[in-house]
Specification:
14 strands, globular, 2 domains, Rossmann fold, 15 helices, about 400 residues, alpha/beta
């Protein structure tokens, strides 16, 4: 059944909110043949993830998704129509399924439009990803709202009973094919201007500002194996420049210190960012979406979790580590925990890096097994469509 979907995304900071919303919108169109409108309050950020978009048109269609600029407080389905809607009539028609991404507040006009529908909309709040135990128990619970409406909480997650993770239908197959083809990898890297030496370890770095960065770079500089560090343009660049002692990292230059080469990359499209993750031996990722993509890459990862007030994020970090380390040997589990804790609390990375090197082959095998295990779970877009069908 082809239903209409409205996804509301308010960009708070960074790219996670829009990254997830845009990925979900595309999947609903391409894989489930749904009619999707994506409401975004920040077209500038959207353009970074969808380079074919522009920041001028309030309405534009990309990859089958109608993208609608949303100015908080004023909702016009077609801003070109300047005539005001008749009194009491909302300026929009509410969709069959309404998703507010990450608890963003729906405009009053839109809630009014939901109230006025003959058949109610299914209203869902797509929550942030967490591996905490309580998530499965809260997934799918309703909550009564004003005006007699009901909203359901949809929780992504890593375990049975949650809404799963975003995963395109053929992602694992495409990733395997890419990783089995040295020519495909080489072609992709060369096109980015990356020519790694045969014996060097390729590492991608996408992180927030981080107090542990200098000590981590120091260990890579002093390493026995050469490291080639690839850094998509972003928040970590200023600190990298400081460590390198240069004013401006430019995309053309390769900076070498000891065993470490540092190379700046442009901010990539989402599909190219996936290919970068598939190409590297280790991926340093952050937030929510890049963290999940690194798991689909089936390579070891280091997560810089989005920092929250009162260190609430450290509980989330441990909840994930508890799951992820379940099938690791005690030595590998403790080395990984030590490295992730150090990276997320500004500690020196030297010792944990050394310990991690001892268990590296086990970590590589584990990241592949973890990806295989996770990919047996339902993916979010399918779970949402099923949720809607059951609710009808
Ligand atoms: O940008 P983020 O830090 O977003 C965060 C998180 O979502 C966090 O949970 C949320 O609370 C906060 O925003 C507001 O990290 P994240 O989630 O990894 O999103 C980055 C997106 O950018 C992801 O979709 C991958 C994409 N990306 C590219 O498309 N190209 C690139 O070159 C890079 C580095 C990332």
């Amino acid at each position: 059944m082809r239903a209409s979907w409205d996804i509301f995304c308010s960009v708070i900071d960074n790219f996670g909110d829009i990254g997830v919303s845009w990925r979900l919108a595309r999947q609903l169109v391409v894989e489930h043949d749904q009619s999707v409108r994506l409401w975004v309050d920040d077209l500038e950020s959207f353009c970074r993830l969808c380079p074919e978009a522009n920041n001028r048109d309030a309405q534009q269609t990309h990859q089958g998704v109608l993208v609608q600029h949303w100015v908080h407080g004023s909702l016009q389905e077609n801003p070109a129509q300047q005539s005001p809607s008749p009194q009491g009539t909302p300026p929009v028609t509410a969709a069959d399924v309404v998703i507010e991404a990450f608890g963003c507040q729906l405009p009053d006009d839109y809630i009014e439009a939901m109230v006025q529908r003959a058949r109610p909309s299914l209203w869902l709040n797509l929550e942030y990803l967490s591996a905490e135990d309580w998530v499965a128990a809260c997934h799918g619970l309703p909550s009564l709202q004003s005006r007699g409406l009901q909203k359901y909480f949809f929780f992504p997650g890593f375990t049975q009973g949650t809404g799963g993770l975003l995963r395109e239908a053929r992602l694992i197959e495409q990733r395997r094919r890419f990783q089995q083809s040295p020519a495909a990898r080489q072609h992709f890297l060369n096109a980015l201007g990356v020519f790694p030496q045969d014996n060097s370890r390729l590492v991608s770095l996408f992180s927030y500002e981080n107090k542990s960065l200098f000590s981590w770079l120091d260990t890579l500089e002093a390493g026995i194996q050469p490291t080639h560090l690839l850094v998509p343009q972003g928040r970590i660049v200023a600190e990298l420049q400081e460590w390198l002692g240069i004013k401006q990292l430019s995309k053309k230059d390769l900076h070498q210190r000891g065993a470490l080469k540092v190379q700046l990359l442009p901010f990539l499209s989402q599909p190219d960012y996936d290919r970068l993750l598939w190409s590297c031996d280790l991926n340093v990722v952050r937030g929510e979406d890049s963290f999940v993509r690194a798991q689909w890459a089936a390579k070891p990862l280091l997560w810089h979790i989005y920092p929250q007030q009162d260190d609430a994020h450290l509980e989330k970090l441990d909840a994930f580590l508890k799951l992820y380390c379940q099938n690791l040997s005690p030595a590998a589990g403790s080395a990984l925990r030590a490295q992730w804790h150090a990276w997320n609390s500004g500690q020196n990375m030297a010792q944990s890096e050394q310990e991690l090197q001892q268990v590296w082959p086990e970590l590589e095998a584990h990241s592949d097994a973890w990806c295989t295990q996770l990919s047996t779970q339902i993916n979010i877009s399918t779970a949402l469509v099923q949720f809607f069908r059951k609710w009808l």
